[in-house]
């Protein structure tokens, strides 16, 4: 299936979702997730606002990493992971976020908005994962100088071409060959082939 999806379109879809789940890690190594809508999108970066005194800001400062995720009504999951830093020209981006998200004026009336800080994500990986079709569709993109680390499974040359993996794949995403081949764009990454291979020819990436 030829899917016309780009990183620019992924960012547009995230903007359309509006409220994203944003994950960080606290000082004890525990995951922390909150919903964030105070976000402004540019073609090459994302800017978002939070108050300096919040644990969210402290976690961003401590780790320098953040992950954002949302799902469209068509069951397209979009996940963005990247390095975060305080944005240059704080006032410009603060004004832009408050202009686009007018509810913030009630949350931070008048000059109280100055307690906030704008963070920027410019170097990021983006994963688009469409669960609303069969087989599923998956694509990966990067922004800035970010690099993508492969995930999922791969069939090695130890494959004996028995066809077990093809039989147990819920998406029908494995093609016959020597060795058999996993179509990565359709792989659910569930690991069923990995668990059933009789000669352990499938490796985790």
UniProtKB/TrEMBL annotation:
<dbReference type="InterPro" id="IPR012349">
    <property type="entry name" value="Split_barrel_FMN-bd"/>
</dbReference>
<dbReference type="InterPro" id="IPR017896">
    <property type="entry name" value="4Fe4S_Fe-S-bd"/>
</dbReference>
<dbReference type="InterPro" id="IPR017900">
    <property type="entry name" value="4Fe4S_Fe_S_CS"/>
</dbReference>
<keyword id="KW-0411">Iron-sulfur</keyword>
<feature type="domain" description="4Fe-4S ferredoxin-type">
    <location>
        <begin position="180"/>
        <end position="205"/>
    </location>
</feature>
<dbReference type="InterPro" id="IPR011576">
    <property type="entry name" value="Pyridox_Oxase_N"/>
</dbReference>
<dbReference type="GO" id="GO:0051539">
    <property type="term" value="F:4 iron, 4 sulfur cluster binding"/>
</dbReference>
<dbReference type="Pfam" id="PF13237">
    <property type="entry name" value="Fer4_10"/>
</dbReference>
<protein>
    <submittedName>
        <fullName>Pyridoxamine 5'-phosphate oxidase-like FMN-binding protein</fullName>
    </submittedName>
</protein>
<dbReference type="GO" id="GO:0046872">
    <property type="term" value="F:metal ion binding"/>
</dbReference>
<dbReference type="InterPro" id="IPR050157">
    <property type="entry name" value="PSI_iron-sulfur_center"/>
</dbReference>
<keyword id="KW-0479">Metal-binding</keyword>
<keyword id="KW-0408">Iron</keyword>
<feature type="domain" description="4Fe-4S ferredoxin-type">
    <location>
        <begin position="148"/>
        <end position="179"/>
    </location>
</feature>
<dbReference type="Pfam" id="PF01243">
    <property type="entry name" value="PNPOx_N"/>
</dbReference>
<keyword id="KW-0004">4Fe-4S</keyword>
